[in-house]
Amino acid sequence: MRKQLNWKRKHRRGQAIIEFALVAPILLALMFGIIELALIGASLSICENAAQNAIHLLAVNGDTNPTIDTQVVQMILGRANILPLIQIQSIIIYQSSATNSGPQISSENIYSGASGIPTTQNWPVSQRFSTVSTPVFAGIEIQFAFNSPVASIGSWSVIHLQAQAVSFILPSGG
């Protein structure tokens, strides 16, 4: 009788180990998936916030300050450095419309990657003169890559995302 009870206890312990071995990978995948989604959300939030702050700076000083684009790019790059998983691919400052028509090749300035070096300059500050009767709208688009620490062993370790913001440029003096 005693041998039979010892055998059942050992059998139960073996059964628990097998059940754990079957459930643990699912729980770990779920946990890492939640962490991954939280990091993606954080990176999107950081870049969208940077785009909003940058468009505000551009809206206030966009038609008077000749170095405004450099200031905007540096602000965005500084904000993106908060999370080392964000890799800025390009920053586009463009003339838009109230409905956000998106970047137009004829009126956009493109800055490449983390260096912030201008690659295309088609929309100089001198063309951004805004008045109350004819407002000029500006847009900022941040294209960035999210380098996943969780999925780095998988095939989708880099996710390409973008953040945008649009505003009208305030007329000079306010």
Topology of this protein?
Layout (H helix, E strand, L loop, with lengths): L1 H60 L6 H13 L5 E11 L11 E5 L4 E5 L15 E11 L10 E11 L6
Antiparallel strand pairs: 1-2, 1-4, 2-3, 4-5
Helix pairs in contact: 1-2
Give the biggest sheet.
5 strands, antiparallel
Sum up the overall morphology in one term. rod-shaped
Strand share of the residues?
15-25%
Uncertain segments: none
Computed structural class:
alpha+beta
Total of helices: 2
The CA-CA distance between the termini, in Å, is 93 Å
Nearest-angstrom radius of gyration?
A: 26 Å
Features:
174 residues, alpha+beta, 5-stranded antiparallel β-sheet, 2 helices, 25% strand, rod-shaped
Word description of this protein:
The protein is built from two helices and five strands. The protein has 174 residues and is an alpha+beta fold. The protein has one domain (2-168). A five-stranded antiparallel sheet has the order 3-2-1-4-5. Strand 2 (108-112) and strand 3 form a beta hairpin.
Short characterization:
The protein is built from 2 helices and 5 strands, in the order H-H-E-E-E-E-E. The protein is of the alpha+beta class.
